[in-house]
Amino acid sequence: SDQQSLDRNVPDTRPPICKTFTYDRSNLPKASVIIPFYNEALSMLLRTIHSVLNRSPDSLLNEIILVDDCSPDEHLQQPLATYVKLLPKVKLVRNDKRQGLIVSRMRGARMAEGPVLIFLDAHSEANEMWLEPLLDEIRKNKKQVLQPFTDAIDAMSLEIGEPGIYHKGSFSWDLRYTWIKATEHEQKDASDTGLPFFTPTLVGCAIAVDKNYFEEIGNFDEGLKVWGGENIELGFRAWMCGGKVTTVTCSHMGHVFKEFPYTFDGDKEEIVQKNLIRVTETWMDGMRKYFYASTRIFSYKRAELNDEDLQSLNERKLLRKNLGCKNFEWYMYNIMPQLEAPPMDSVFYGEVTN
Ligand SMILES: [Mn+2]
């Protein structure tokens, strides 16, 4: 019950300029933090919860919603339920069966009472003053999807590492998430000014967004199963449909980058491939050809889509039309010019496998 005693000294990884900023808390919207988990180590989950409770001003934290995606782990049953009852603001709901990360996040989002949603992975640690800079950005402009700056927590020692240099979220033509290094002047600018910088796609482990705006642009695409592609899809959608995607330099969040980010029921590769096909078909217009050229498996899987898949895909295409979103070429030229089109006119382009 004594939260302060559970706090530790962590390295404050924010750029020094951030420590000079002040925020008028009475003017900031309140946040609901949504944390889905599946068989997370209890200690890691509690580290996430306590860091949010300890490092968020009471007046700005509406609630923390834990969504158990049907974890069989015993520690996460009665022991967690009993412990959570001792904590202020923490709600625990459990899925009857596995729903995956994306659907679990949306379950939390629908319950949330705060005007701002913050989706957080269950293996995170919020750093000092993590919340105010995010909320202040949303106060200034609701039509954006934000992420804090992510510091890696070492998966073995569980220590928070030194902050990395500034990267933006990108993707390869097979729609895997990649990082691109910000240019030297962008890096200097970010650390000197503490101002947010734009990013083409989201890393996905922590996302902050105005609840109404998120609903307006179609929430997470719940046709994406379990995990995979949702961070790229949301990046495309926000940019192409009149919003923007930003990394908030002064908000720092520790995160354990796991080898397997989320546990799957079923064939992981196949689920992710189908998700990526869905993202491609919804958003990439004529540039889909580069995606399909990157590996032949996508064409095979595309042929396997059934009527139900195609119907739900059409619903997303309709959403895109109704929102009056720009085309993918606009996105590539304006937001992601660093990514070059593959050499389709060369003799061969593609993969080598054994
Ligand atoms: Mn994660």
Automatic annotation (TrEMBL):
GO BP, sorted A to Z: protein O-linked glycosylation
Keyword Ion transport: no
One GO molecular-function entry: polypeptide N-acetylgalactosaminyltransferase activity
GO cellular component: Golgi apparatus
Keywords for the protein's UniProt record, in alphabetical order: Disulfide bond
InterPro entries: Glyco_trans_2-like, Nucleotide-diphossugar_trans
Disulfide bond recorded as keyword: yes
Taxonomic superkingdom: Eukaryota
Pfam families tied to this protein: Glycos_transf_2
Glycosyltransferase 2-like domain mapped to chain residues: 32-204
Protein name per UniProt: Glycosyltransferase 2-like domain-containing protein
Source organism per UniProt: Helobdella robusta
